[in-house]
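<backbone_tokenisation>
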Amino acid sequence: MPRSLKLFITGLVAVSAFALLATSFVFATYTDWPLGIQPAIGMPVGRSPEADVLLGLLFWIVVALFASALPVQMPRGTVVSVSIAPIVASMVLGGPVAAGWVAAIGTTELRELRGRVPWYGTLVNHAGLALPALLGGWSLELVRRGSDDVALSFVATMIGATVFHLSNVLITATGVSLRDGQDIRVVALGDTRAYLANLFALAPLAWLMAQIYTSVGVWATLLFGLPLYTTRVAHHRFVEMREMFTQTIGALAEAVDKRDPFTSKHSVRVKEIAVDIGREMRVSEGELEALEWGGLLHDVGKIGVRDDVLLKQERLTREERMAMNAHPVLGAQIIAPVTKLAPELPIIRHHHEWYNGSGYPDRLMGDEIPKLARILHVADAFEAMTAARPYRMKPLTSEQALAELRKFAGIQFDPVIVDAFVKTKHATGVNDPGRSIEPRPVPLLAQAAGRMAQATAQPDPSPRSEPV
């Protein structure tokens, strides 16, 4: 475990425990109720206020336990459950103390009880919910200020839920970032749709649960179990559909790679390298997803290349070279009808464009080439150079491949992206020759020549279609 993660876990647990105990003490000191929690209206008559408080707290803890029983893991590593509803409802009824204790105890999951989560992970999970619940409860109380106005109560609830949600997202993203080495911004924004669904669907529902609890009773509150369950199902379906889509894309990419025994798993490796470069360059979540799927599908156009050309071990003729170089266009044409993959089209079409304008199919140059296509070009080249090919049975070492990337930076590759690749795990421990010269701008003469050549010139016949 990285030292930074250990410090984060220790600090989070310590601060959360202190805040929970201190808040409980402060509220108990300045109110007439134990733990600072007022007894809920609508509880059966005949018990002491203390009993009402404890039974009410127990009720919301049990509801939270059921809501936390089936969490859904989102694509970027965070876990989402519908427990925000009982936590916020207890926040409305009992302030920060009730919310803190419900979040600390009621979010226990089956996987924790079964030992599937290490003890420190369990501590982080509970502390990462208890502290935001306290912050959200304090925010709610500051806005509500003891008023019984229904509209103000609703506004205060939404503010408290937002503070709770954002604090939890920040803590979770920090932990996942330190654990997996991902950019915290990518982790925090990666599952935005799920976060927004949780906030805008469950926070008003939680407020309504609290109102029903106080005006009607416990039995009516239990009726909200159905909408909570359907919300959880919606999260699960979202993840399931995305996973199925990714698996389908992966199967298609594998089918293309299987045509050539030398390129088995090529697309998967290119995807991994490209995604790591994207993370290093701090691209947006949408761009990261485009790199993931575009990396898998970048060679899908090779379906339309004849076997005698695709598998040929000798030097390609001019006509064969033209057929091979058509695969980016064919790939874009194949994927174009899939509207969900629209962001991946520029990657697929332009991943063989050269930085100086001498690539194909459109002879784009410099920043005219889409950034994600430039990233994939570097990833594709490195993977191709470090793997066996029919025209080069002995692959280059990582040091030799990195030297080639440096050598052709500013000619074939974007130098900035080569610099980013050097910082990824794929180049870790590799002797980096560094930039030999500053990035070379594309000369105006070369730009003009590239424009004139588009209509007449064909790519020079070279051993194969792989770069370098």
User: Anything to note?
Assistant: The first strand starts at residue 72 and ends at 73. The radius of gyration is 29 Å.
